[in-house]
Amino acid sequence: MSWQKDLEKKIKKYLEGYTACHDFFHLTRVRDNALKIAAKVPCDTEILEAACLMHDIGFMHHEDDDWHHYKYGMEIAEKWLPEVGFPKKKIAAVLEVIKLHDNYHEGDKAEKSDKDEVRILQDADKIEMLGAIGIARLAYYFGERGFPIYTDKPVPKDEEIWLNHSLLDQIRRDPMIKWDKLHFAYSKKIARRRNLFLKRFYSEFKKELIEYHELEEK
């Protein structure tokens, strides 16, 4: 049996019953997105696939420190990859991809990487934030934490708004801007329909809320 199947078994068992935002199926969808991009962008698909399957596993049991989920994911990957027969000489590269997959949130402070495996995983993960799946995941995440769909508090001027306002404003300021930050043209081709749907959803979402609340045009 391949290391992929053994690793999937371990991850599925470990994440059984976990929140849908970062569950086993999120990891496999990101992996599938990544392999589609990798078909057009030369890279080491073993490193890419292993990193995709483990990039968010560190959320489990570390919800109070989820900003550093990559660190916990690296620890699990370092232990599990040898156990499933993953090539030992490639483990360090997998850990680096996991480390850097989410650092685009850090803006100018982000550690840059020219490795295509990192950039492919970043694109594949961003695609999961677009379209119907992206809306469902973001709404689920907001609901879990008791964040509002709408609030009459002034909208912060700072564009760094992650999780500090309403779901309505979060959709406008976070997932849609990720479209422009995809690294590869083929990533945009995969994500185009999802991005258009997200924009239509936001427009309808806002229109329905206007019926009940006075919303300023943004």
Mean pLDDT: 86
Radius of gyration: 18 Å
Can you tell me the CATH topology of the largest domain? Hypothetical protein af1432
CATH class of the largest domain: Mainly Alpha
Question: What number of structural domains do the residues give?
Answer: 2
Explain what this protein looks like in three dimensions.
The chain has ten helices and no strands. The protein is mainly α and 218 residues long. The protein folds into two domains: 1-107, Hypothetical protein af1432; 129-218, Methane Monooxygenase Hydroxylase, Chain G, domain 1 (Up-down Bundle). The longest helix is centred in the C-terminal third of the chain and has 26 residues, at 185-210. The protein starts with a helix and ends in an 8-residue tail after the last helix. The relative contact order is 0.12. The mean pLDDT is 86.
